[in-house]
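Have a close read of the entry that follows and walk me through the local backbone shapes. See right below:
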Amino acid sequence: MIPSPEQATLPEWERLRLLRAESEFDAIKKNPRLAYALWCVTGVFGGHRFYLGDTLQSIAMLFTLGGLGVWTLLDAFFIARRVRTVNSSRRAMVMARYGILDAT
């Protein structure tokens, strides 16, 4: 792996801290393909929302069968955005834990 110009100027201990934070984020980030696969298989039961951590909405979908299918169909258009939002907040949480100001 070729270091970026920002990483090349960092001291070794800072570079290692950044790599550790990135590794931790990679371990907890959500995959949009998996979210869509769960939507296809368990959409009316809210499986994709359980995967993304939206527990209350998942339970509501579970007991209403995805709003009688309407909510499930609408989710097809919003899953990608929700995955990006979840990943963004998780990345910010990890970077804050390591004291790294994240510009992305």
User: Anything to note?
Assistant: The mean pLDDT is 90. The two ends are 20 Å apart (CA to CA).
